[in-house]
Design a protein that fits this description.
ubiquitinyl hydrolase 1; thiol protease
Length: 195
């Protein structure tokens, strides 16, 4: 992960390619800001609400590299993908079982990451980890429940993800993971402690 560009990493991990750059996501955010500004102007450009709105920073992006759910959602629409809030009334009405999904996008305190099925296995593709973390089918529901309990917002990605080499390869073989990948910086801190 570079900087706070976790939304970019989240999208690219989801799609399994370098599809989005910070510039492209910034462009989507600016377009959303402009649409919001135009909607606010409908109430009158001299209104107190409009002047207050103009003075506030963008809610769609900030200088740290954070992008909002609206930016992520609009970026995914280009691929024909849609987000549904996990455990929302709509999700429950559809009677969806997490194990039958293909991917989830998770957010907590401005950090975004992807949980995706590649081949026949689930992976936590959090950009703060040194590598992908294998999640068993039986652990998936518990993992998502734990994230929700910790305050994460979880979105189900609906639609057909683009074909990718990892998915094709993992259709033929199963991965075994002997140990969980460390958080970025955890290994450096550990070796420093050992010294």
């Amino acid at each position: 992960q570079e900087g706070s560009l976790c939304a970019q990493h989240c999208l690219n991990n989801l799609l399994q390619g370098e599809y989005f750059s910070p510039v492209e996501l910034s462009s989507i955010a600016q377009q959303l800001d402009e649409e919001e500004r135009m909607r606010m102007a409908e109430g009158g450009v001299s209104s107190e609400e409009y002047r207050t709105f103009l003075q506030q920073p963008s809610v769609n992006m900030d200088d740290s590299g954070f992008f909002s759910i609206q930016v992520i959602s609009n970026a995914l629409k280009v691929w024909g993908l849609e987000l549904i809030l996990f455990n929302s009334p709509e999700y429950q009405r559809l009677g969806i079982d997490p194990i039958n999904e293909k991917s989830f996008i998770c957010n907590y305190k401005e950090h975004w990451f992807t949980v995706r099925k590649l081949g026949k296995q689930w992976f936590n593709l959090n950009s703060l980890l040194m590598g992908p973390e294998l999640i068993s089918d039986t652990y998936l529901a518990l993992f998502l429940a734990q994230l929700q309990q910790e305050g994460y917002s979880i979105f189900v990605v609906k639609g057909d993800l683009p074909d990718c080499e990892a998915d094709q390869l993992l259709q033929m073989i199963r991965v075994q993971q002997m140990q969980r990948p460390k958080l970025i910086g955890e290994e450096t801190a550990q070796s420093r402690d050992q010294r």
